[in-house]
Design brief:
mainly alpha
Length: about 525
């Protein structure tokens, strides 16, 4: 007989995810919060109490896939525009948070400084999947800032964690220069690996020229990037993120419509399942962490989790309400003044420091013993505190975030729609300009040319692409060839608008999806709804 335990766990998680999502959609509740709370409840049942979160599963399987998709769908232009804020948040805020947590752990809870910094490194990074799932109601700019920060800060936290664990276990002494060297190798190595692999993946795709093979390459890419970076002790997280951002930039020029639609459908389903499963597993881990607490009392563990949660939240609030004013004293350029955010508008950013499965995976990776064979001090307490902070930030902050967004009083986010209208207008202008040459190349009759011109002019007047139910079945090969030429010209103009900084990457994704579906409709392969 086969051992079906693993299959049973997969089926159980899948069913739980589907049920939680159905309940969330019917009731309007926050899906990730519902999954975590449901996971906590299920963790007390005998049937599910044995399910654990292997840290290597999160770090080696979940993390590369989720970060890659986040990078593919994140605006590089927005990242460049707020690069200074991103660097400050993903590096210096991580260090500040780790220090604040360590001080709380040492001065209030009585843990040693090395163990305190281990806990600080665990809880310093925000979680990309949690931010995307919980903070979806934010306008484009603050949401992109949060996503970009959470994509990069894992690399900083993992370097800090490695140093802190080495000091806590007695395997190495803290020295400033080696630590700075580790940071340099981690960041520079991750960036180089990501860029090189993006170039290699692009060249291999050009050789493959097959939608199925190109989709397989897409699936392999984040894991290869993560593996290569980790092999040279660089940041696998940063390698995946840089690779994804680079491929998103060159993708419209090098990836065919069929491949793109097929790959995007796969990644949307896969990342949804991985994301939801992570939230469920985080909830399931909390009862196990509580039952395994033996070095301290449960009351102490709960109090410690609340105090550390306060340190994490207050550090972020203080950072985002102090550092911007320091920068304003230094940088008074008009371009930077135009990008300033008021304290009211920064409040949702400060309140969205969600911790998630990455912190849990790091906590589970804390070694069991020190260099002299003694048990790692307060390891069980670190796990309880980590689960508690995750629960507080995701549930308490997640449930209250809509109210905080209302307090911020963001104005209507019309920039995306304006850029969509610009993209539609300019791409249709490009198609109309190409029409005579495309018609001549394919010997198209004048009646067809006039019909296509009228159709595209009508679309331009409406500033929107034709709907699927308006598209007629095309049997004439010449008409199809001309239409395809016009679609490709619209895609070329779309990319040029992006390259000139006139439209955002997210607008490119939306218009590109319309063009892909139109192209696949012309070639007889329907796109997804």
């Amino acid at each position: 007989m086969y051992d079906i335990t693993g299959l049973a766990v997969l089926v159980f998680c899948g069913v739980a995810v589907v049920l939680a999502e159905l309940v969330a959609r019917r009731t309007g509740m926050n899906g990730p919060v519902l999954l975590i709370v449901g996971g906590v409840a299920l963790g007390f049942l005998p049937v599910t109490s044995g399910i654990r979160v292997p840290p290597e599963l999160v770090v080696l399987l979940f993390l590369p896939a989720l970060l890659y998709w986040e990078a593919l769908t994140t605006s590089l232009r927005s990242i460049r525009n707020d690069l200074r804020t991103l660097v400050l948040s993903s590096v210096f805020l991580v260090v500040a948070t780790a220090a604040a947590v360590a001080a709380t752990a040492h001065l209030v809870l009585g843990l040693s400084w090395p163990v305190g910094f281990v806990l600080g490194a665990i809880l310093a990074p925000t979680d990309a999947t949690a931010v995307t799932a919980v903070a979806r109601g934010l306008p484009r700019r603050p949401l992109t800032m949060l996503r970009a920060e959470s994509l990069v800060n894992d690399g900083t936290a993992l370097v800090l964690f490695g140093v802190a664990v080495g000091v806590a276990t007695g395997t190495e002494a803290f020295e400033a220069l080696p630590v700075l060297g580790d940071f340099a190798v981690s960041y520079l190595g991750g960036i180089v690996i990501g860029l090189v692999l993006a170039w290699v993946a692009t060249q291999v795709r050009r050789v493959a020229r097959d939608a199925l093979l190109e989709s397989v390459i897409s699936v392999l890419t984040p894991f290869v990037a993560f593996l290569l970076a980790e092999e040279i002790h660089a940041s696998g997280v940063l390698a995946v993120v840089v690779c994804g951002l680079a491929l998103a930039r060159v993708g419209p020029r090098t990836i065919g419509a069929r491949t793109r639609v097929q790959a995007h459908a796969f990644w949307r389903i896969t990342t949804f399942l991985l994301n939801a499963t992570l939230f469920l597993l985080v909830g399931l881990e909390l009862p196990a962490a509580v039952s395994g607490l033996s070095s301290r009392t449960l009351g102490f563990g709960v109090l410690a989790a609340l105090l550390v949660s306060a340190a994490v939240i207050l550090t972020r609030l203080a950072w985002l309400n102090v550092v911007p004013y320091v920068i304003r004293l230094v940088d008074r350029r008009a371009s930077q003044r135009a990008r300033r955010m008021s304290a009211r508008h920064r409040l949702p950013l400060a309140w969205s420091g969600f911790r998630g499965a990455v912190s849990l995976a790091i906590a589970l990776a804390v070694p069991l013993t020190t260099a002299d064979g003694q048990p790692f001090p307060d390891r069980d307490l670190l796990l309880v505190i980590t689960c508690g902070v995750i629960l507080v930030t995701l549930v308490v902050q997640g449930l209250t975030l809509p109210a905080v967004v209302r307090i911020a009083r963001y104005g209507p986010d019309v920039a995306a729609e304006e850029e969509m209208a610009l993209a539609h207008t300019r791409t249709l202008d490009g198609a109309l300009a190409l029409l005579p040459r495309a018609a001549a190349d394919h010997d198209a009759p004048e009646a067809l040319v006039e019909r296509l011109r009228a159709e595209h002019e009508d679309r331009r007047a409406r500033q929107g692409a034709v709907r699927d139910d308006e598209r007629r079945q095309l049997d004439d090969d010449v008409e199809t060839a001309v239409r395809l030429a016009l679609v490709r010209e619209r895609r070329r103009v779309l990319v040029a608008l992006r390259d000139d900084g006139l439209i955002d990457d997210e607008v490119v994704l939306r218009v590109q999806a319309e063009l892909d579906n139109e192209e696949l409709g012309l070639t007889g392969v329907p796109g997804p709804e």
